[in-house]
User: Fold these one by one.
Assistant:
Number 1:
Amino acid sequence: MESFCHALFLKNRSMNKLQEILKISGIPVALASLCCLSPIILVLLGVSTVSFASSLADTLYGDYKWVFRAVGIVTLLGSLAYYLYRQKGVCSLDQLKRRRNEIINYIALTIVVGVLGYLFFLYVVVHFIGVWLSIWE
């Protein structure tokens, strides 16, 4: 019985960490995806035509995608720094040195989840919504 409770505790603890990482990376993924998400939002709000949204998506994704990706990475690192400072209490260099392995794990996991979330959200979710709205084929 004790091993079952310990396994359940570890599973619950890992799910909490995953939820924390998803909270950290959610807004940066949305910001990095705005190059293709903004034309969809404009069409759904009725402010834009489909042809203008298609042209806007081509321009934003073709010429400015690296700007959106850079904003996403900077926001991801900023939200991670905010999380470590506010939630985990890493306020000084001494605490940073003592908790180095934990912080490296958070950074690596956050970057992996952020990149995978960006790829899934932009190239699966946003793409299929855009195809459904006939913004792109």
Number 2:
Amino acid sequence: MMVRLPYCDSPTTEQLQTDMTYTEEITTRQRQANPRVASLSSKVLQIRKENIKQSLSDLNTIGHRQDYVATIDGVMYYDDSRAENVNATWFTFENLIRPVIWIAGGDSKYTDFSDLRPLARKNVRTMICIGKDNSNLKKTFQRDIKEIHEVDNLYEAVTMASLLAEENDIVLFSPACKSDDKNETYIERGNRYTENVKRLENEHRQ
């Protein structure tokens, strides 16, 4: 069963559906006021509607989408491995209200992460990059995130996050891109992240 992020003021299904209705009403008014402006606005708002539809789909998906994993020493760990694109991670970031240790990366070389910069600047204290080539990630966020680290795998990422995190922080695995292993699914990545968090939790219990 998926447990939604308690640190988010996340929109409900009803709120998202209301947002779609509101988008349609705006488009109608703009079309009546100025056909040329309405044409461009409709295209932009259509993109927004599609993003909302995707968010509605994500909210109803079980597994690896804003999944609570554990709380260790006052730090909460979440698996958002299904967020394999910028839009999905943006939707998660938009509602964050606590400092975040962000684990991200994979096949990120040609991904445009620029839309995440304002939200990362606001919410992310530290980023931990996984993947074979993190140059694009580091270059994009070097002015927005104070600490950026690189590791080789999720075992090292979770271990480093546990050392850097402070009480009431969030450790969030939201890769924002596909795995650099073409044969690895978001489910496999999410499971590996969860296994490493559970390992860490067991170590703290001993």
Number 3:
Amino acid sequence: MVVDAERGGVVMATPNADRTLSAWPAHRSVALLPGSLPQGGIVPDTPIHAFVAPPLQLVLRADADLRPIRHDIELGGLLAFEIYNLLTAAEADAVVEASERFGYRDEAPGIATPPGMRLNKSVHWVTDPESLGPLFERMAVLLPARIDGMTLHPRLSERLNMYRYDDGDVFNRHIDGEWPGFSLDVERRRMLQWPAHLRSCLTMLLYLNGPDDGVQGGDTRLYRPDGSAHDVRPTKGSALFFRHGFGPQSIQHVGRPIRGPVSKYVARINVMYAAAASYPGSARPTGSGVD
């Protein structure tokens, strides 16, 4: 189901704010999906958001004087790695501020998790090529060119599934689902689902703050096939990548609990791959995935 400005309304920017870098555009709902609650139950018509125009605060440069570095994680033959130095501190802070402008909820739209698994807060929104295009360019040479016969697609899905972990919040052991890609229509009123030959193969967990900001705990624990584990400390501006879906190469993981007054912020972004054979069809109105 989709919603436009007349049905969903537009949340306006601060009155009398001039169009400087500090002024954020208004935002609206671009899709409504059933939202699952942490302890079970569904909230109908949970919104997915977008700004009515690309925010200047989220426009990235491909050459931001960062030097991304890949570090492979030994996980018993499963694919997992970190890439450091993907965002500046200011860029990471801007993503957090954008997410708080939409507002976090207990329910997560289009996500199916059993009671007691996802115990955090969620907001989903659709961003722009001006943000994710340069981010992809910063890391493209460090990503696998092919996975399972599929070729790396030169564009990240533009739906950001963001999570805020407050004191005591946790995302218990689970496997991430495979997702289609998403983006906005040209009028920025609807979320569109990409054609079926484009599928996600990798989860990208983009860490937007960490211990230097006062975050206590919140490591991501990855499990090897033998049951042993490797913990990844959230590092602001860096990202963790691993296989997802429901095949034998997918990685079970936990978002470990947060302790103390500083919340942890993380964005799940899907890295997209294209099947060798092209399928007919174009982007269509919204669908959902399963986490």
Number 4:
Amino acid sequence: MCPLCIANIAVLATTSSGGIAAVALKTFRSRRQPKEKDNTMKTTELELDRKVVSAKEWEAARQQLLVKEKELTRARDALAAERRRMPWLAVEKEYKFEGPKGEASLLDLFDGRRQLILYRAFFEPGVVGWPEHACVGCSMVADQVAHPAHLNARDTTLVFASRAPQTDIKRLKGRMGWQFISWYTITDGFDKDFGVDEWHGTNAFIRDGDRVFRTYFINNRGDEQMGTTWNYLDITALGRQEEWEHSPEGYPQTPPYEWLNWHDEYGNDEASAKVLEQVHRGRAAGQAGSETT
């Protein structure tokens, strides 16, 4: 659960029954009669003491900071390479979920792909916003999720899981525009066993046939960076699967960017050929793949 949800629950827990009613009434009224708020930045009220320079001086300052930016990028790549060498933890217990098509196992959540990324989102009774909304922090994560077709192209499936029934999840997805996120209902002790029963978190798994292994886990501020295809792939056992990555021998890899496509054109050879031609032109011009770090 996010800090905002916990803070609100704590307020309710320490309030009398009459106080709870008052809080609920106040919340209801605030929703019915939202206050108009001026979000315009008042620059005259801010003391922004910054030196104003010429274009040449500004570019020199940017180039100086760019050295550190590249160091950070290389450090991030090195950390992802270490993740790909993490030992795996076998998942021996059978877990059951409810999905749009009925009961599903953890293996079913892979949807036939090699890797699975599972985000524990808090949408259930007791969470602030229920039943109209999920946890506000989890909702922000969902709002940032890129189209899953790009992850699917790297043999990876992304799913969300909560304890809300499927009828409520379907309604929430429709209201918030999250139809493309596969969202399951937790029905057993999966959340407790994987450290997400009281706090949000993202687990990464890989399968070898029917055997499932846990490969990585992040929570807290680690979840802040989630949402983009690249960051999701960076926490998986196989990574981005591009040739520039420092991965164990035998890992699947392809030239950078050449696997990309429009999210509605994966599997279309003609569209893939157009993208590949564009990548090759960019590379020839020194704009694509000439520097991966």
